[in-house]
Amino acid sequence: MNKLLSAAAVGAACLATPAFAQDWPSQTVTIIVPYAPGGIADIAARTVAEAMTQEWGQEVIVDNRTGGAGFIAATAVAQAEPDGHTLFVADMGVNVINPSLFDEVPYDPAADFIPITMISDTPLVLAAHSGTPFETVGDYFEAARAAPGELSFGSAGIGSLNHIVPEWISYEMDLEVVHIPYRGGAPAATAVASGEVEVGVLALSSVGPFVDSGDIRILGVAREERVESNPDVPTLIESGVPNVAAGQWAGLFAPTGTPEDVVGKIHTDVVAFLESDEAAETFGARGAIVSPMAQEDFAAMLDTLRGQFATIIDAAGITAE
Amino acid sequence: MGLIESLELGLVTALTLENLFYCFVGVSVGMIVGVLPGIGHLAAISLLMPLTFHVPATAALVMLAGIYYGAQYGGSIASILLNLPGTASSAVICLDGYPMAQKGRAGSALMITTIASFFGSCVAIIVLIFLAPPLARIAMNFQSADYFSMMVLGLVAAGSISQGKPAMGLASMLLGLIIGLVGIDVNSGAMRLTFGMPELMDGVSIIVIAMALFGVTEVIASVGNGFGAGGKSTTVTWGTLMPTRDEWRQTPWPLVRGAAVGTGVGLLPGTGGGSMASFMAYAVEKRASRRPETFGTGNVAGITAPESANNAAAQSAFIPTLTLGIPGDAIMALMLGALLIHGIAPGPRVVTESPDLFWGLVVSFLIGNLMLLILNIPLIQLWVRILQIPYRLLFPAIILLICVGVYSLERSVFDVLLVAGMSAVGFVLMRLGFEAAPLLLGFILGPMLEENLRRSLLLSRGDPMIFLERPVSATFLGLSVLMLAWVLWGVVRPQRPADETTTSKSMRESMK
C-alpha cells in the first residue's frame, strides 16, 4: 500500500512538473488535424510537422482525427495534457462557425485553445457560370435584385464556409439568393461549371481548371487585398461589398494551459519556417498563401470573425438541427 | 485527346513497374479469393482497401479492380471441381461444370471457362474504350434531375431482376437505405440517427459495412463447414485440359452471346454486376439451344456463356462507375469509395481531368486479363491446392486483418466496435434471409437518390415537372416505367414452372 502511494506521489509529481521551453520538446509532438489526409488543413499540418521535426530534433507527427464536424479532434485537444506536446491545426469551421451553427458544442474554441499563428490561407472567390451574363460583382447584384429568389448558389454543405460567405454577401447587399448544398467543394464547383447553379463562393484553387476550360468566370475575391496570382480580380470590398473577407485558412493552436514560453518558442520557430521560400513554394503549389501572424493579431482576427459569423448565421437562419 | 494518344497514355501509365506490380497483386489475390468458397471478392477488396491509402490513386484502383475481375476467373474452379461456387457469380457454373467434372471432363471445363473469361473481358473492355469517353462528355451536362432519374432506373433494375425473393431483396435495400441516412443530412443539415454521438455525424463508413457484412458475417456463416473447402483432393492432369473437337465446336456462339448479355447488364447501374449477368446468360443460352434438355448434364454452352457474361459484366460495370459516378453494384461502390479517399471526385470529369488514371486503369484491365490467362492454365494445380487451406488458419487471419484494416481507416476504436456490432446483427439478418448486396446498394444509392431529388426540387423551387422537362431525365424515367411494366407482365403471364425452379434454386444456393 505504501509502495502504491509513493508510486502515485511520484507520478503526480511528474505530472505536476511544469514544462519549460529549454527542456521542451522532451517527447514526440502530435499535431491533431480534424480532417482526412489530403485537405489543406492536413497539408498545412504535415508541412509544419516535417519542418519542425528537423528544427526541434524530436519526431512531430500528424494525427488525423476525423469526424463530427471537428468535434472529435477539438475535444481530444481540449482534454490533452497542455504541455506543448499536443498541438492542433484547425480552421474556420472548428474555431469560428461551429459554436454559432450547432446547439451544443462539446468544446469552447475561445476558451480551450491558444492561437499560435495562422499557417496558410486559401482565398475564396465569388465565381459565376460562364453562361450567365455576369461580368462583374455588380452585374450579379443587379440580376439578383431584379429577380429575388430566382438565382441559386452552390455550396460544400450546410454551415460550410462557402455557404456562409454568400449568405454574408446577401446580408450586406440585401439580396435573396437560394442556397443549394452539395456534398463537398468539388461537386459544388462542378455545379457552377455545369450551370446547375448560377454562382458560388469557391476556393480559388478549385476553380482554376474550370476557368481555363471557359466554364467559370471569377467575379471577385473575398479578401482584404487582391491575390498576387490573380492581380486582375478585384476584392469584394473594393467592388462595394462591405466587410466580406474570409479565407479557408488553417491555423496552429495549443490547448489552453500550455506554458507561455513553450507557446512562444513554437510561435517563433513555426513563423520562421513559414517566412522561408520553401514554405511559400509548398503552399503556393496548392493554391494557398503562407500567412504567418503575430499571436495577438490572430487572436483579434478570430474574435472579429466570431462576432461577424454569429450575426450572419443568425440572420440567415442557418442551423444544423 | 484522340483515342490513340489516350491509349498510349494508358499504356505508359499501366506499364510502370508500380502499376504492373499492383495489377499482379490484385489479380492474384482475386484468383485466390475467387477460388476459395466463403471469401468473396467484396471481403477481399474491403480488406485491402486501407492498404491502398498510401499508394497513388491509379495503383490503388488498378489493384482493387484486379481483385474483382480476377475473382471472376477463379470463381468457376470450385464450381466445377466441388460443386461449390467460389463467388456468387459463378454459382451457375455448377449446373453444367460439375456434371462435366463427374464425366472426367474437369480439365477441359477449366480450360473453356478460362478462355470464356478472357473473351468476355476483352469484349467489354473494347466497349468501355469506345463508349466511356463520349458518355462522359454527354454526362458533363447532366444535372441533379438527370442523376435522380438514372438512379431510379438503377434501383428499379436492381429490384426487378433481383435474385432470390424480391421482398427480401427490397427489405434488405430499405435497411441499407436507413443505415445510409445516418449522419448530417446534406440538404437540411439535420442530424439523423446519430444518437448524439459525434462519431456518427459523418455517417457510417462504407468500409465498416462491407467488412461487417461481407467479411465477418461470411466467416461466421462458413465456420460450420469444418476444415478447408476441398475436403477431398482433386487432381487435374495436363492431358485432360484440352477440350475435344466437339467441345470446341460448341463454344463460339455461347461465347459471343454471353459477352453481349454481360456487357449490357454491366452497363446498367444497379444490376449487381457479375451474378445477374451469368444467370441471365444461362437463361438466354438455354432458350437459344436446340437441345435445352441437355442443360444441367454437362452442356459446354452452359459454362461458356455465363462465364463469358460475368467477366464482361465485371468490366463494363466500370463504365457507369467511372463516367457518371453511379455505382452499378456494391463492388463499384467500394471503387468509388477508394476514389474519394484519394481525393478524386467521381463523375464525368474523371475521364478528362485524370486521364492517366482513367486510361491507365483501362489498359491495366487488358494487362490484368492477360496475366490471368497466363496464371490460370499452367498453374491450375496450384489453384486446386488452394482449396485445401484449412479454414481454422484462414478465418482467424481474416478477422485479424479486418480489425487492423478498420482501425487503420480513421484510427478509431469506435469503428472496430461498429464492425463487431454490425457483424452480429448482420449474421442474424442473413440467417433470416436478408441479402448483403442489395443492402449495400441501398446504402449507397439511397442517400444519393435523396440528395439529388431534394436538390432538383430546390433548384426548381418545388416544381416536380423538372424531372419530365429535362429530356435525359424523362428518358430514364420512361425506361424505368417500361421495366416495371415488363416485370408486371412477367408476373401476370403464366410461367413455365420447370424453368423457374432450377434457376431460383441455384440462385438461392449461390447466396449461401
TrEMBL record, chain A:
Superkingdom: Bacteria
Keyword Signal: yes
CDD domains: PBP2_Bug_TTT
Keyword entries, A-Z: Signal
Signal peptide span: 1-21
Pfam family, one: TctC
Stated family: Belongs to the UPF0065 (bug) family.
Name this polypeptide is given: MFS transporter
Organism: Roseivivax isoporae LMG 25204
From TrEMBL, chain B:
Taxonomic placement: Bacteria, Pseudomonadati, Pseudomonadota, Alphaproteobacteria, Rhodobacterales
Biological source species: Roseivivax isoporae LMG 25204
Membrane spanning stretches: 20-39, 51-71, 77-98, 110-132, 144-161, 168-184, 204-223, 324-345, 357-377, 389-409, 421-446, 467-489
Matching Pfam families: TctA
Residue intervals of the DUF112 domain: 20-441
Name recorded for this polypeptide: DUF112 domain-containing protein
Keywords for this protein: Membrane, Transmembrane, Transmembrane helix
